[in-house]
Amino acid sequence: MKPVTQPDPGFERRVPSNLWDTLMRVGLIGALVVLCFQVFSPFLHLMVWSIILAVTLYPLHRMLARRIGGRQGVSSIILVILGIGLIVVPSWLLIISFADSIQSLVSGVQQNTLHVPPPRAGVENWPIVGRNLHEVWSKAHADLPALVQSMQPKIGDLARKALSMVASIGTTMLLFLASFIVANIILAYGDAGARGGRAIFSRIAGSSRGEALANLALSTIRAVALGVIGVAAIQALLIGLALLLAGIPVAGVLAIVALVLGIAQVPALIITVPAIIYIWASGNYSTTAAIVHTIILLLTGLVDNILKPLMLGRGVDIPMPVILFGALGGMASGGILGMFVGATVLALGYELFTNWVAANPESAPPATHSLEPVQGTMG
Fold it and tell me: How is residue 129 annotated by DSSP?
């Protein structure tokens, strides 16, 4: 008979002790994570934007650094100066010009020095809006202050919305400027940052899969960024050509403004709709020409809705609908920043899910067994 083993009383005391130690450590780590997040949360948007910009600009930064002898700090300073000159200055001039225009318009209405020309012949015959537009236009020509006084509540609401939009654009540009500066500080230590990021992915998902996921995240961020900037550049070029074709004054300045607004994900209709109003109100165009220019400007103002689905997934080994749905869903929930985060997260999730499905051991083909007869001797 086998001897009966007696229970170890020390084991029963050690198990609760080890369990409490584990729970205490997990609780302390969780509390530390929560405290770190609370401290870091005010800078979360800034740092995420900075990382996105750093990832996007890293190839350009490396190329520029090689041209100047490998000095990464000088390359970062050059990129900051270029970014301020190409993006921040035009945006600041746009905001100042818009504020001055609003102020002069309000001053002209208050002092009754703003004169509206009479409506053109045939405006009343325009479909849908012709009669109402002719009536309002005639009142503005006859007595503009009385018309403004009668429409005071609506004008007040429109003014508040316009000021809110300008403030939002200004806040976004300030955040972008701060993020751009922080991104170039990160780029000054770009090689170390790249190694650190790949080490994080390798520590989480293993060396081989972590490298693949890191490359996927980088390519997705760059594809979305280049899709946004590329679409904005193409649309700004088309709007500029359409404005030149229509003979709109300062078409080049408006094209630059359209580029800045496109990068900030503000609809380009803000540029094209006032141009269309100018075409119809100036009296310098025939009806046929006005209709043709209106159609062209409307199409150029909406062309980004066609180009974005075509360009967002370029250069990424993930189906384009995955990138598109991630970008659109992220933008719907988190704005411009959510567009990058949504596309990257959905691409990583899709890659992990497909790898998990492909690694199913039950889907492997069954092993083949040899059915050859066994050779032997018979007595």
Answer: T
**H-run or E-run covering 193:** helix 190-205
The predicted-structure confidence for 86-133, as pLDDT tens digits, reads as follows 766 766 776 676 667 667 766 766 666 666 677 766 666 666 767 777
Residues 173 and 273 in one domain: no
CB 336 within 8 A of CB 264: yes
Q: Are residues 216 and 327 in the same domain?
A: yes
Q: What is the pTM of this model?
A: 0.62
Give the structural domain span for 61.
Answer: 45-188
Residue 183 shares a structural domain with residue 262: no
pLDDT tens by residue, 338-361: 777 888 888 888 888 887 787 766
Q: Would you tell me how many other CB atoms lie within 10 Å of the CB of residue 373?
A: 6
Give the type of residue at 371.
Answer: L
φ, ψ dihedrals at 269, nearest 5°: -60, -20
Torsion from C-alpha of 127, 132, 135, 137, nearest 10 degrees:
-80
As for how many domains the chain has, the answer is: 2
16 part of a folded domain: no
